[in-house]
Amino acid sequence: MKSEYHFRFEDLQVYQKSIDFGEIVNTLVKKFPREERFELTTQFKRASDSIALNIEEGSSGSDKQFHNYLGNAWHSAEECVACSTKARLRNYISFEEDEEVRKHITELSKMITSLRSKISIRIDKK
Asked: How many whole angstroms separate alpha carbon 87 and alpha carbon 103?
């Protein structure tokens, strides 16, 4: 069901994909053992959610601010690589699940980098 209230940042494909990725991670970490609840589980969820949150937060600011927030989103995506690797090494997720996470992160990272590049060009023209 689509909301009758719409925000401009919701049109960004990178935002939409980052929202989806956060939900993928949320489902994945439900398999983690209970003792990880306040450790790797929380860190992985926060990092994955931070991607979308930084995109949203930066989108309403200046180009320079948006560029910086996209950098934060990119770093959060990279943090998810480490979380996924740790989860695989601890046998919480399979190699295939880790590969799927990496596929999503690679796509998001490329999209974020591309958007940052476009914004950099706008900043340089000012």
From this structure: 16
Q: Are 68 and 120 in contact (CB under 8 A)?
A: no
Model confidence pLDDT, tens digit, residues 30-78: 999 999 988 999 999 999 999 999 999 999 999 999 999 999 999 999 9
The two most distant CA atoms of the chain are separated, in Å, by 52
How far CA 52 is from CA of 9, 13, 100, in Å, comes to: 10, 11, 19
50-89 as b/e: b if 16+ CB within 10 A: bbbbbbbbbbeeebeebbbbbebbbebbebbbebbebbbe
Contact in structure between 120 and 71 (CB atoms under 8 Å): no
DSSP 39: T
What's the pTM?
0.94
Domains, the chain, in order of start with CATH, read 13-125 (1.20.1440.60)
